[in-house]
Amino acid sequence: MIRSGLGAVVAACVMALAVGPVRAADAPTATLYRRATLIDGTGGPPRPGMSVLVVGERIAAVGPDDKVSPPPGAKTVDLSGKYLLPGLIDSHEHLATPPNRRMAEANMRRDLYGGVTAIRDMADDLRAVAELARASRAAEIPGPDIYYAALMAGPSFFVDPRTHAANFGVTPGQAPWMQSIDADTDIRTAVTLAKGTSATAIKIYANLPADLVAKITAEAHRQGLKVWAHSTVYPATAADVLAAGADVVSHACGLGHAVAGTPPSYQARTPMDPAPFLAGDNPVIGRLYETMTAQGTILDATVSIYEEQERLRAKTPKMKPALCSGAMAAALTRQAVRAGVPVTTGTDWQAPWDDPWPTVHQEFAALVRLGMTPAQVIHSATEVGARAAGQQADMGTLAPGKLADMIVLAKDPLADIENLKSLETTIKRGRAYPRRDFKPLSKGDIGDDE
Question: What is the CATH number of the domain that holds 97?
Fold first, then answer.
């Protein structure tokens, strides 16, 4: 029998007895998920006939069905013919620019009931995001766990109207969650203020030179924070961002500036010619990918947003052209995959309210279209996503000691990525959310009248 994972649970109960009796209601519940085909997030082959024992919010044991025995009183769920995977991760969302609690909760509910158990929030009004993260963590509202970034950018960026929306009541650039950085800034203090928001990371956004990008990154790492940066920071180049040691870079599209030239500021960006990237692997980009592979830098590619912008512009020709085409973003990401760069599944947009599935499913489809296999996409959405969020010790794979963040599918997702939509149940921190309980979004959920 595989029982070693129960040791920590027993020890916790013994420690509790030292300060008082443990009531039955306080004891962690146990559930054995039996006879599933396990796709564990590591990228390894599926394993049929596997069982996962969950005690409280964590996985206590994983193994062949005849080797895992539950404790007395445990609930048993037979998953014969079903597929069990880690919960999915959207590595690039924005929940509060500007804050809209009703819309945020609606999208979080759609995420969770669509299989998403964790997200990276990539810089918003953290007053709102922190409360959403707390409420979701406490299961007061249905939603993924949220790991969020505090933003840093050059002073000239803060004319952007989005910064005003995310800093209501505070001068843009002077809030701990969105700071204006220049040569006179005390970087140690700035990072300390950002850390005080309970952020997981610093997001390095725009209008910063290479030396400040390097200083912010070094200090963030010294204080135990991750660094999530735009792939080009203007005027800091993609090579500068990588040399600084960013943990994750967002937007494959932005890497194209290494060939097209880096504008002096975020506001000066203009659409790039896709031709140098569509004919095959680009040697300049290839050198960037060699660095990323050597360093383990993760690419948050966000391919689907560029495809979505093209669809919208086809309907509204007067709309401002996107920085790069969907085909260019796909080509850059395809080259990254071939080079061995770890790619994660971020979106940076919200699917229409009447789409019953989380936006990240659009990213899954885009990654398959550019040549990734369903197995690669699932690995990107689980283990790589957990690393991107800095949470690989707790999630991303199904293993003893990790959070019981899992999804149950009726169909094999390795045969067709669309089979992720055969979802029957999302399990987040040991709590089950059956898909049948999902109430589709309405216009009212996003703040409009029916």
Answer: 3.20.20.140
Burial class of residue 133 in the structure, from the number of CB atoms within 10 Å of its CB (0-12 exposed, 13-18 middle, 19+ buried): buried
What are the phi and psi torsion angles at 102 (to 5°)?
-65, -45
For the cut 70, the answer to whether the pLDDT of residue 16 exceeds it is no
DSSP string, 125-190: -HHHHHHHHHHHHTTSS---EEEEEEEEE-GGGGGSHHHHHTTTTS-TBEETTEEE--TTS-HHHH
Cis amide leading into 64 (omega within 30): no
Same domain for 294 and 425, yes or no, is no
Would 120 be classed as within a structural domain? yes
Residues 352 and 256 in one domain: yes
Same domain, yes or no: 102 and 77: no
Q: Is the domain of 15 the same as that of 120?
A: no
Distance (Å, whole) CA 378 – CA 431: 22
Contact 51, 62 (CB under 8 A): yes
Query: Within a domain: residue 449?
Result: no
Question: By residue range, what is the domain housing residue 355?
Answer: 87-388
Q: How far apart are CA 380 and CA 91, in angstroms?
A: 10
Give Cα separations from 393 to 12, 269, 300, 387, 402 (angstroms). 20, 38, 20, 9, 7
Q: Are residues 102 and 28 part of one domain?
A: no
- The tens digit of pLDDT for each residue in 245-290 reads 999 999 999 999 999 999 999 999 999 999 999 999 999 999 999 9
How far is residue 310 from each of residues 94, 303, 373, 400, measured CA to CA in Å? 20, 11, 24, 44
- Quick count: other Cβ atoms within 10 Å of Cβ 69? 16
Q: Got the DSSP string for 404-438?
A: --EEEESS-TTT-GGGGGGEEEEEETTEEEEGGGP
Note if the bond before 98 is cis, omega within 30 degrees.
yes
In angstroms, the CA 421 to CA 408 distance is 10
Do 326 and 303 meet the contact criterion of CB atoms below 8 Å apart? Answer: yes
pLDDT of residue 295: 98
The structural domain count of the chain equals 2
Q: Does a structural domain hold residue 444?
A: no
pTM for the predicted model, two decimal places: 0.93
